[in-house]
Amino acid sequence: MSNIIEGYLGKRVDGKKSRLPARLDFIQSATGLFLGLFMWGHMFFVATVLISEDALNTIAGAFEGSLFLSEKQPLIVSFIVFVVFCIFVVHACLGMRKLPINFRQYQIYKTHASYMKHSDTSLWFWQAKTGFILFFLGSAHLIIMLTNPTITAEISGGRMYSHFMWPFYLILLFAVELHGGIGLYRLCVKWGWFEGKDTKETRKRLSKVKWALTIFFLALGLVTLLAYVKVGYKYATQNSHAQHVENTIEKIDINAGKVRI
Ligand code: HEM
After folding, report:
1. Where do the domains of the chain lie, and which CATH numbers do they carry?
2. Coil, strand or helix: which one is 101?
3. Any residues with CB less than 8 A from the CB of 105 and at least 6 apart, and which?
4. What whole-number distance in Å separates Cα of residue 245 and Cα of residue 55?
5. Is the shortest distance between the CB of 176 and ligand 1 below 6 Å?
6. CA–CA gap between residue 91 and residue 228 (Å, rounded)
7. 3 state DSSP class of 212
8. CB of residue 230 inside a 6 A radius of ligand 1
């Protein structure tokens, strides 16, 4: 009965409002923080290809249990991806609550934003747009990793170059770095982390740090992307050369057979 009253009136019998929205906000922040920090680790991990192919393969092997198992077990990576994917879905579900759901809401937001000219409000819209892109591209990437958990420089490079996935990763990179950077900044502002005496000054400082981090991870990501394309190109040309040699040997064999006949 109490639920029905709250459902109609938006208030409980005791006159108080539900705490659920605040709890959901907290979960959204916690999952966002996890994903933001995870992405920093992830970007450094994929960037090990810049050191060498072996460096990436060794670290990827460690995720498959090479340090404590006699044989690598890619299912461990699938399990990690599954956990990250669940957190990603929870975060996306909770984020959806904040998007404008009809033209009127969108109109109100746009009018407020254009009159206020408040950079944090404009940033929020970028976060909404990039979040929308991540629904699709982030999910696609995680499903690929879930079902193809073996990570090597050759496989990843092949995906980028031969499967022509570099444009996909380029868009994903910009979407995730902008979304994550803005998200972590908003978390600091929302929960008052690193707050000094002067709030305006703190925001300015946080905003500078945010842009510095975003530019750093974008630059690292772009160089990493190029390195994967280069590795993919190397293996593709090696393989096509090997295929050419094989075909030529086959032709010679066939012709030799003809001569023998
Ligand atoms: C445990 C989960 C994850 C694993 C194991 C993983 C693994 C990888 C690997 C191996 C690559 C290299 C390209 C490839 O092989 O396809 C890559 C690239 C990338 N991943 Fe993930 N990923 C995970 C989660 C995520 C998430 C949640 C996001 C963001 C939504 C993301 C965004 C990216 C981006 C933007 C790149 C391109 C990086 C660059 O080229 O600089 N990944 N990931």
Report:
1. 18-230 (1.20.1300.10)
2. coil
3. none
4. 31
5. yes
6. 29
7. helix
8. no
Please give the C-alpha separations between residue 41 and each of 7, 24, 205, 217, 232, in angstroms, as whole numbers: 43, 26, 23, 11, 23
Q: Are 51 and 198 in contact (CB under 8 A)?
A: no
Query: Mapping DSSP to helix (H, G, I), strand (E, B) and coil, where does residue 234 land?
Result: helix
DSSP secondary structure letter of residue 151: -
User: Is the distance from CB of 202 to CB of 194 less than 8 angstroms?
Assistant: yes
Q: Any idea which residue has 């033209």 for tokens?
A: 103
* 160 contacts 228 by C-beta, under 8 angstroms: yes
pTM comes to 0.91
How many other C-beta atoms can be found within 10 angstroms of the C-beta atom of residue 35? 23
Could you give the CA distance from residue 46 to residue 59 in angstroms, rounded to a whole number? 10
Atom number of ligand 1 nearest to Cα 151: 10
Q: Assign 196 a pLDDT band (cuts: 50, 70, 90).
A: confident
Task: Express each pLDDT in 157-166 by its tens digit.
Answer: 999 999 999 9
